[in-house]
Amino acid sequence: xxxxxxxxxxxxxxxxxxxxxxxxxxxxMNAPFQRDLDRRAGETPTxxxxxxxxxxxxxxxxxxxxxxxxxxxxxxxxxxxxSARSLVYHxxxxxxxxxxxxxxxxALGILIAVGIVHVIALDRSLMPWIIASQTIPIxxxxxxxxxxxxxxxxxxxxxxxxxxxxxSFFPVAVGMVKGLRSPDLMHLDLMHTYNASASxxxxxxxxxxxxxxxxxxxxxxxxxxxxxxxxxxxxTGAVAGIGAKLLAGSYYSQTIxxxxxxxxxxxxxxxxxxxxxxxxxxxxxSMGGRPA
Amino acid sequence: MLMTVNQAxxxxxxxxxxxxxxxxxxxxxxxxxxxxALSDVNLTINxxxxxxxxxxxxxxxxxxxxxxxxxxxxxxxxxSINGMTPEQARQARAYGYVFQAAALFPWRTIESNVGxxxxxxxxxxxxxxxxxxxTMDLVNLTGFEKKYPxxxxxxxxQRASIARALAFDADLLLMDEPFGALDEIVRxxxxxxxxxxxxxxxxxxxxxxxxxxxxxxLSTRIVVMSPRPGRVTDVIESTLPAERPLDIxxxxxxxxxxxxxxxxxxAGHSYED
Lengths: 292, 273
What we know:
Chain A is mainly α. Chain A is 79% helix and 0% strand. The mean pLDDT of chain A is 90. Chain B is α/β, with parallel strands linked by helices. In chain B, helix 9 crosses helix 10 (252-272).
């Protein structure tokens, strides 16, 4: 009961506010076009009729929530998952390159962090470049990566995944540098008094201490990976994937399709973040974490 | 003539000495200029002794312990542990160190924490198990093997960290205010247990504290130190018997020693003002 009041009610309230605002915006933004239509057809609808019409245009400037919901529902649950119109199909295409890129990115991030923590030269030289890499707009880099890789014969999943990697290694590297340096001085002194080797200190102290940091940064990285995969689909002329769906929607003014694809992307992102969080919680539990 | 006699006694004492410091000094370079943490410390700690270091903060008592443990490098003088340099002694795992906090790894169970040094040394699994069981028993933690540190009280955690320091059976135990963060009741209890443990194992113990009753109750010798620069101002031999029930702390003998420690501490302070 308390959980309901403390957790669910606030979320529902905010959701209701957003939906209400959305409807208001939809009416406001679709009104000029609707007025124009009515004038040309010589109709004089009542206010209620007019509002009803602004919320049911086939290609609205701003689709109403129920239009997006209906489109999302139809294209997610009522179509075969192999159909080119199925959002499940497009989500899966994007998800596969997201996961591949995320795996690469996490591995690369951990590798970089280990280097930075153990090699002073890397600590001094690498960090500025890593930070600089994230200031370059990904939208500018993505087409170049895809063109260059296509020129040497690499197409398909890998180039998209590499863009995900580019976005996701950064939070992991930064988080893991912090995590691997998180053991306090007393623990390090303790290992020193045991005459522990560097690798023993690494595996028995630094790695377990960094696990919470790893999962926190993986949550950020997995969401960034999805963005990377979607961005990677835009300049490739990809025929499948959430990015491709967004692009196609914008070509043909299928605003409802675009919004539905957007919702699909958010759902995938939320699922990924929750999944990483869940795995993190399981791992922490198995490492004797205090139940929250 | 006098010199030769001194040297002769020095070498004869050497056989029994666990820690020998000669004109030991340590100066930290800080942003506010050099700080003399230790100055001209001459001290010999013999096998089987229980030596307490007492003094106000900044007197170098912890620093001295850390020099023994090779966690700090002295800038002057000499120190040897079992005839070796601190580094060699550390590499030979000559001592166990107990920190101010329990410093248990939160992701390891108690038995796995106690076994950590044994894993690092690389003992066979069976022997690890045997030693974990023995040391856990020694500190009365049997039955808590599978618990995680957060499931134990502060006193139990500190006992686990003592077990960890005892697990690899070094003859020298260095303890840096191990009970400082605990309440008085738990502290009394652990003091009693520590004395029993010391008698059972016949280890040499160096114990840093800033509690006068604790120092007098536990020690065979009390080293009084004072700050700026950190130095030894008095060394008091305890005349208390080896068998010490808690109520010995009300005996006139105990109070006399405590008074002398207090005087020593006060003298150190007045020097400064």
